[in-house]
Amino acid sequence: MRKTLFLMAVVILAQMPLRQAAGQVAGPDQPKADESQPARPKPPAKTGWDAGAAARYLDARESWWQSWDHAKRDHGTRCVSCHTQATYALARPVLRASLGTHGPADQEAAMLADVRKRVQAWNEMLPFYSDEAYGKGKEVESRNAEAVLNAIILSNYDVEAGKQDEVTKLAFRHAWELQTTTGPDAGAWVWQNFDYAPWESKESEYHWAALMAMQAAREPAYRQQPDVQERLKALTEYLTTHYDAQPLLNKVAALWADESFPDILSAPRKDALLKRIYTLQKPDGGWSTTDLGGWHRRDGTSLETRSDGYATALIALVLEEAVAGAPHASRSTPAHIERALGWLRANQNAETGAWPAWSLNKNRDPQSGPGKFMSDAATAYASVALLESQKHVAHGNAQVRASGR
Predict the structure, then answer these.
(1) For residues 363 and 345, what is the distance between their CA atoms, to the nearest angstrom?
(2) Torsions phi, psi of 318, nearest 5?
(3) Which residues pair with 78 in a beta bridge?
(4) Which are the contacts of 165, defined by CB distance < 8 A and separation ≥ 6?
(5) How many beta carbons lie within 10 A of that of residue 217, not counting itself?
(6) Residue 327: which of 267, 254, 393 has the closest Cα?
(7) What's the rounded Cα separation, in Å, for the pair 22 and 6?
């Protein structure tokens, strides 16, 4: 949701003279602006990043995933990944729109065909991981995780098309059928857990429950169906009652879902969360995923503490969509967002199109396929956050034109 207060703040900051932006007040010897002339919207600034390069990186990574032997599954399909495919589905449609291209890229089409095939033949498909090969409970875990990811991926394309596809409805139905209905985790889904944070670990259950709530809310007509409302009620109750025990990364996801389900977080919870987020923002404008949880690498190596694209982009996007202009947002919120966007503009790799992010589990070779998993998510979220900010500025300029100021 675009927030008017945030939009106007962005426009004001964008149009502020350089000396004022640096904290200097115009002196009496400086000429005053001609107030008799209508203010002109500022010409679009250089974005400082390359959307085409980001799209090419994400497409290349999707091609790699589809060809990776470890990702191949039964019936000629592939495992659906949280880090590479779910985030690809979030970013690629909006990147395509910004670049003026029509129709899914070949890599998108292949991914969607794969997901749709598994959804339509759901009862024939094997779980991604068997109990026999990977240990007791892995079949249930992987089946639950896949159902949620299928619904999220397909729903992203429905939002782009403006209507819900029948296969997407089926994917949501599969997910709701597997939603936990009893016990302490009622409302969530048993998640795939190989102790690989943040994608396949104990805390992943809450994170993807929050993203499932947010995604369902993006389809308003579907959300209003009585049976869906019942499922969403259980889901949001889970998010509310389990919030305090979550790492900060998951609390950010809950804040995102709270935009559509405002009962998830109370005002004191929001205030405390935002204060913590703003405190952890680094001098360069970014955030580090390391600071968002009590992670420990399984190989005993030290975690990377520099700002990274995943944490910075995710927080910037959530602040843009769920906080800016809201009653609980402080007046400093636009500045925090702009500093984060500045970091993103400055830290895209000019050669690869990707943003840096590092494994929470091992000191991986950054040139290896698995070594790029965090950068896959970082690049997807960075693209969406930067494109969202450009829409805010464009909308704010349109408001200036309409006002005739």
Answers:
(1) 26
(2) -65, -40
(3) 72
(4) 154, 157, 158
(5) 16
(6) 267
(7) 20
Domain residues of the chain, as ranges?
Answer: 4-9+50-59+68-403
Residues in the chain predicted with pLDDT less than 50, given as ranges, are 1-46, 394-403
Distances (CA, A) of 248 to 33, 155, 201, 364, 398: 46, 26, 15, 24, 36
Please write the tens of the pLDDT for every residue from 91-147.
999 999 999 998 999 999 999 999 999 999 999 999 999 999 999 999 999 999 999
Amino acid at 17: P
Q: What is the pLDDT of residue 286?
A: 98
Q: Is 106 helix (H, G, I), strand (E, B) or coil?
A: helix
Query: What is the C-alpha separation between 405 and 387, in angstroms, rounded?
Result: 26
pLDDT in tens, 33-86: 333 333 444 444 445 899 999 999 999 999 999 999 999 999 999 999 999 999
CA–CA gap between residue 146 and residue 169 (Å, rounded): 15
Within 13 A of 84's CA, how many CA atoms are on the CB side? 24
Rounded to a whole number of angstroms, the CA Rg of the chain reads: 22
Supply the pLDDT for residue 5.
43
pTM: 0.86
Count of CA atoms in the C-beta half-sphere (13 A) of 156: 24
User: What does the pLDDT read at residue 156?
Assistant: 93
- The pLDDT assigned to 326 comes to 78
Angle formed by the axes of helices 226-241 and 166-178, to 10°? 50
Report d(CA 48, CA 98) in Å as an integer.
15
- What is the number of other CB atoms lying within 10 angstroms of the CB of residue 201? 20
Give the integer Cα–Cα distance in Å for 383 and 91. 7
Q: Which fold has domain 4-9+50-59+68-403?
A: Glycosyltransferase (1.50.10)
Q: Is the peptide bond before 198 cis (omega within 30 degrees of 0)?
A: yes
Segments of 146-191 assigned E as strands: none
Give the bridge partners for 196, in sequence order. 200
φ, ψ dihedrals at 29, nearest 5°: -85, -5
Residue type, 101: T
How many residues would you count in the chain? 405
pLDDT at res. 367: 93
